[in-house]
Design a protein that fits this description.
three-stranded parallel sheet
Length: about 240
């Protein structure tokens, strides 16, 4: 008796991975989706090996379910969770180099979105250009707002509807690749007692908070004139448009 193979042709475009160096920054938010997690326990959490894996379990599941091609990207928050400008640039560059090398091992099955620091438009444009032109990546993955040490709003965040990001959007338009806007968990100070989410942790994550926060950012970009100034810019909003 023969077993029919799943149909081929599905392309998955929002598929998270984690480079080994990312375990340290992932641990800082692990307790949000794994209560009681510690930095040491993050490495052994059941979800972590799945993020670290590309060529074994992931590829086998792709074959089993008819996924022919997958666009990989660094899991959230990535460089957007790093408040130091120089550290964020290094985090993104190292992750992109690692991911490009992994994709090259199975180029007919995998592609990638680039991670970039959004502390300033110049750094963002530089790494976007390198990732697309030199590493062959197909777009940019941004995990909502950029956490900053200084120069942001009163909450220590930067949003990309601001005019200072015009050089970044211009570069993206010239490259002809999409920007995927992806949600993220709040930073630690947004979870302190008395804050909006600090008192309502039951709505964190995909249930409510993801689309509440990211939809505001998306609406801000759409109403800021970015698409008037740079009509070739392409933005992807996942999860049915984030509400």
């Amino acid at each position: 008796m023969s077993t029919a193979k799943p149909p081929r042709g599905t392309i998955a475009i929002e598929e998270a991975v984690l480079n080994p160096d990312g375990l340290s920054w992932l641990a800082s938010s692990a307790a949000l989706f794994n209560p009681g997690a510690t930095p040491s326990s993050t490495a052994t959490h059941g979800h972590t090996p799945l993020l670290l894996d590309i060529h074994t379990t992931r590829l086998a599941k792709m074959d089993a379910h008819g996924v022919e091609y997958m666009l990989l990207s660094l899991t959230s928050p990535g460089a957007q969770g790093e408040p130091s400008p120089s550290a964020a640039v290094t985090l993104a560059r190292d992750a992109n180099d690692w991911l490009a090398a992994e994709v090259a091992k199975a180029a007919t099955r995998f592609g990638a979105f680039a991670s970039i620091s959004m502390h300033n438009a110049e750094d963002a444009a530089t790494e976007a250009r390198r990732a697309v032109k030199e590493l062959g990546m197909y777009g940019i993955m941004l995990n909502d707002y950029q956490v900053v040490q200084s120069g942001g709003d009163v909450e220590g965040k930067k949003y990309y509807d601001a005019a200072e990001y015009d050089p970044f959007w211009k570069t993206v338009e010239e490259l002809g690749v999409p920007v995927y806007l992806h949600p993220r968990y709040p930073q630690d100070k947004d979870l302190e007692k008395g804050t909006r989410y600090g008192e309502r942790k039951q709505i964190l994550g995909a249930a409510v908070q993801f689309h509440l926060d990211l939809s505001m950012h998306i609406y801000a970009i759409c109403s800021s004139g970015v698409f008037d100034r740079f009509p070739g810019v392409q933005v992807i909003a996942g999860h049915l448009g984030e509400g």
